[in-house]
Specification:
The protein is globular and about 45 Å long. An 8-stranded antiparallel beta barrel has the order 1-2-3-4-5-6-7-8. The longest helix has 21 residues. It has 2 domains: 31 residues, no CATH class; 121 residues, Beta Barrel (Lipocalin). The protein has 4 helices and 8 strands. It is α+β, with helices and mostly antiparallel strands and 166 residues long.
C-alpha cells in the first residue's frame, strides 16, 4: 500500500514538473504567438482624436541634448515610436488623449514583449509641435533602472502608417 501511494505521489510530482517545464514563459509566449492570435484577444481597434498624425522627433536623456532621431505616429487608437520598435520590439500601444486649451495631451504605456521593460509616454501636441517625456523602466530580479527622456518635434510631411485593423 505504501509503495503504491509513494509511486502515485512520485508520478503526480513528476507530471507536474514536466507540465511546468513544457509551458512557455511569458517572454517565449510573446515571441512565439502570431499577431493574428493576439489580435483575437485585443480590444477592438479604436479611433482616437490624434489618428492619422505623424511627428518627426528627437529624443534624449532629460536635461541633455537630444541625440536620437525618431518619429512617432498615431493610428487606430494606437501610438508607435519607430526607434523604440526598432530597438526593443515595442509594439503599437493604445493611447489616451484629451483636448485642452493648449492642444491635446496624451499618455501611452508601452510594454516590451521580449524584456522586462516598459515606457510611459506623456506628451502635448500644440498645433504642429509635439513635446513631452518618456519614463523608461528596466526591471531585473536584482535591480530596477529608470531613465527619463524628453522628446520634441514637428508634424511630419509623411503620412502615418496603418497600425491597427485588418
Amino acid at each position: 500500500m505504501r509503495l503504491a501511494l509513494l509511486a502515485g505521489l512520485l508520478l503526480t510530482a513528476t507530471s507536474a514538473v514536466a507540465a511546468i517545464l513544457m509551458l512557455p514563459s511569458d517572454t517565449d509566449h510573446a515571441r512565439a504567438t502570431p499577431p493574428e492570435v493576439l489580435a483575437a484577444f485585443a480590444d477592438p481597434p479604436g479611433a482616437g482624436p490624434l489618428d492619422g498624425t505623424r511627428f518627426d522627433t528627437r529624443m534624449g536623456p532629460q536635461g541633455k541634448p537630444a541625440e536620437i532621431d525618431d518619429f512617432v505616429q498615431f493610428d487606430s487608437g494606437l501610438f508607435m515610436s519607430q526607434e523604440c520598435e526598432d530597438r526593443c520590439n515595442y509594439p503599437p500601444s493604445a493611447y489616451y488623449a484629451r483636448q485642452t486649451p493648449a492642444g491635446h495631451d496624451f499618455v501611452v504605456e508601452a510594454f516590451c514583449p521580449t524584456k522586462e521593460t516598459d515606457m510611459v509616454w506623456r506628451g502635448r501636441i500644440a498645433g504642429d509641435e509635439i513635446s513631452g517625456t518618456v519614463t523608461w523602466t528596466v526591471r531585473r530580479f536584482y535591480w530596477t533602472h529608470t531613465q527619463v527622456l524628453s522628446f520634441s518635434g514637428t508634424r511630419s510631411d509623411r503620412r502615418a502608417a496603418q497600425l491597427g485593423g485588418p
